[in-house]
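job 3f2a | input accepted
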Amino acid sequence: MTQAHHDFARAYFAAVTAGDLPDALCCDDMTAWITTGGTMTKSAYQEVIRLLARMCAEPILFTVDAITAEEDRVLAEARSTAVLVNGEAYENTYVFAFRIRDGKFAHIAEHYNALVTQEKLVPLMKTIT
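job 3f2a | predicted structure (129 res):
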């Protein structure tokens, strides 16, 4: 079970790099929580991921530093790098807490450096439609 959860966490990062978290990876009632936005529905979180993809000149890349899995819980420590559409470099650090149910994400909590997000992404969000 542990290796399957590790692989599933890596599937999340691949999906975000591709710019979309497909329904096939998510429970219908999935919820998410992000540092700068709080709790949200699956569709709202999927839109956040699509927005991030639109803000990047090239796909965001993740380096996974550690994954720990136990029962229905997976924690991943990761770092991201990207070049934003305005030419600025973007780097952040994260701890993701995933809850898995029936082979799909039931909940995703995305903890990251809010200062970097506020400095780099929030101003850019206002210009991206």
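job 3f2a | The CA atoms of residues 79 and 93 lie 4 Å apart.
job 3f2a | closed
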